Amino acid sequence: MKRILLIVLSVMAPVLIAAAQAPVAPNGIAYIPGYMTWKVIAPSYREDKGQIRIITGNEIAVAALHAGTKPLPDGSMLAKVAWKAEKHPVFPDATVPGAFMQVEFMVKDAKKYKDTGGWGFARFVGDELKPYGKDAGFVSECFQCHLPVATNDYLFTKIVRTP
Amino acid sequence: MKRILLIVLSVMAPVLIAAAQAPVAPNGIAYIPGYMTWKVIAPSYREDKGQIRIITGNEIAVAALHAGTKPLPDGSMLAKVAWKAEKHPVFPDATVPGAFMQVEFMVKDAKKYKDTGGWGFARFVGDELKPYGKDAGFVSECFQCHLPVATNDYLFTKIVRTP
Question: What's the ipTM?
Answer without folding.
Answer: 0.86
